[in-house]
Structure to design on (175 residues):
């Protein structure tokens, strides 16, 4: 990892969490949208994250741990914790290898859940039976998702601030 590796990783997370927060805001804004250009009610959207290096979190953990005899790639992330971790951190974790990567947004997918049906015969989008199809969006779920995005954004911003402080302290030592 180079000297700016932490900033690169945190920067990628800041971009990904910003997209996540935007999607949550869009979901909340369209919670009562009964008619879209595609037809039907608005569908909730989800953000899909992926490690930038194409690896999984499990592979990153396996690379960081020594004594990987009980942990092998492809056994499933659950097995890491159920089987316990044998060994400690391998070698120098500040060394160039292994280098964990950042995160990227690979897509925004629409939720496939069925719309909610509410009886409102006076609504212009009501069917012949008087029911209107509304998006299946729970404001509490959206708020929890937004809080998670906000917390993650804040943690990555703090990591960047901490690294900047380390750079400044190092430069002060060289004076």
């Amino acid at each position: 990892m180079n000297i700016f590796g932490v900033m690169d990783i945190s920067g990628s997370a800041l971009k990904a969490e910003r997209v996540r927060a935007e999607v949550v805001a869009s979901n909340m804004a369209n919670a009562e949208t009964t008619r879209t250009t595609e037809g039907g009610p608005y569908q909730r959207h989800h953000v899909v994250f992926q490690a930038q290096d194409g690896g999984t979190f499990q592979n990153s953990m396996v690379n960081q741990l020594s004594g990987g005899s009980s942990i092998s790639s492809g056994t499933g992330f659950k097995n890491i914790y159920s089987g316990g971790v044998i060994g400690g951190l391998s070698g120098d974790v500040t060394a160039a290898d292994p280098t964990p990567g950042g995160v990227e947004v690979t897509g925004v997918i629409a939720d496939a859940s069925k719309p909610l049906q509410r009886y409102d015969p006076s609504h212009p989008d009501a069917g012949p039976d008087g029911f209107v199809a509304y998006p299946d969006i729970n404001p509490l779920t959206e708020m929890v998702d937004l809080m998670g995005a906000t917390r993650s954004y804040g943690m990555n911003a703090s990591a960047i601030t901490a690294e900047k402080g380390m750079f400044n302290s190092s430069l002060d030592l060289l004076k």
